[in-house]
Batch of 3 targets.
Target 1
Amino acid sequence: MKKHLKRFSLIIALLALVIITTNIIVINSARENTYNSVKTIPKNNVGLILGANKYVSNGYINLYYKYRLEAAIELYKAKKVDYLIISGDNSRKDYDEPNMFKEDLIKNGIPEDKIYLDFAGFRTLDSVVRAKAIFGQENITIISQEFHNQRAIYLAKKHHINAVAYNAKNVSKRLRLKTNLREYLAKTKAVLDVIFNKKPKFLGEKIRIPHV
């Protein structure tokens, strides 16, 4: 029994070490590439909005969505991006993250011809890699919350994309507890995906975005 407990404790300790180490790697990789102010962030031709569901289970607006939308509008109106790619999940007919964002961006004054939709952004890896592989962008501004941007920047660097990120406002500590716990594992998975050369689920035909 003691042998089994010792072995189990060793496995748990090793897993904890892997999670801590990979999280440090991802966070450090993004340290110089995330911004909280539109005044200091460099300009890029394209901003990449990482998708989120507009609503949570109780029917209220998802604050992650709301704050990403606001950040994208702020960047565009500050002329720090000329176009926006909305990359999200559209794996079901009744679930369409990109068009949710598109409708709200247009309502807030973003011209429709400045918006491109990526319906195969099932994961952050897919969204980042497809920005280059499908939309031809080697320099992008990623738009999400800081914890998410760190992971996206790490993946961008590993796929030879020059990326900066604009940090959307985060939700309250109480509301983000579950997300924070999940993010520890997501950062570990991002490192493993790079090690094992994980590819996006779909690629497809290239889409040209003009350069202003």
Target 2
Amino acid sequence: MEPKGETRVAAELPVRVWGMDADGKPFFQNATASNLSNEGALLSRIQHPLKAGEILGVQYGDKKARFEIKWIKGSALPKGFEAGVRILPSQKIPWDEVTREGKNNPELTRRSDKRRFLRHRVQFPIVISFADAQRAHMQCSATDIGGRGCYVETLVPLAVDTVVNITFWIDSDKFLTKGRVRTSDPAVGMGIEFTALEEQIQKRLQEYLDNIDQGFAKAATQGSRP
């Protein structure tokens, strides 16, 4: 439950999360932080069972902090979980700049009017290119993608704030948008924000990804029947 008067920002950030799962085993994974405030966030796309009251480490960009799990529940995706977390005393929130800017932007704090673009953990082919035509294109797959951005796993991620061009396909239609690297995890990957994708294309991409995930969920359910 949110403290009275606490302002939440409707942004979605790629983060790294680590700790001990409900079985006492250590884990380390990519996730998405949303419903942000100066006190906590909603973590989604968690792939490990967790317990309320346990402590998690969360990293956004180069900033890290420790959080307490306040609640945990299963998500709509197979083997997925969502967790509400609150920052521990003496810790500094990693996304303080995002929340400061968001509180001055009514479009981000008006949650009832803001469509939420869920990230989908699927293999989605994209091409990363650059304004400098001499640089080689990167043909790769986003492993976590939504209407506003994606995460690309790579051993050699680009530097934070690198501006890129992203090309992707929905069925036979080709789309091109600009992007900016927001997080860069050495030997792991990078989070890219789509900075020039028109809203109708965002929605079309999101619907396409929703259908892919629903197809996976249906196949998994049918495959589990005797």
Target 3
Amino acid sequence: MIRPYQPSDKSGLLKVFYLNTPKYFDKSEVDDFEEYLEHNADSYLTIEMNNSIVGGTGYYINENDNSGRITWIFFDPNFSGQGLGKQSVEYCLNLLGKDERVEIFIVTNSQLAYKFFEKFDYRIIRIEKNYWGDGLDLYEMEKSKE
């Protein structure tokens, strides 16, 4: 189930975040994630299965470039391959796509996740080595609004 974030979800989301560290996130990023939750709780989603938090994802509109962005998407590795990522991205794209301000979709991720976003027709527009942390490169990708 995908549902709006509630402050009581924070500890469960942090547990899942740490399950993805250091493979997908640098340990220094936890502070950024907590700050995101503090300031963007209204556009963060919690993903549950069997009444347990198994992941989350955020979305927002950057009015500087009229982009719809998906951010902080991660899942409990034990639930990998169950379609949660696909459902979450489709959910966010649907929400963002309804907003008239959005002209393009952008996502930033790493060399470990960019192939997943290619399945949604995102294409790489920029790569920056060691951006997120040692060995975690930035892959900035965009997708046309159809």
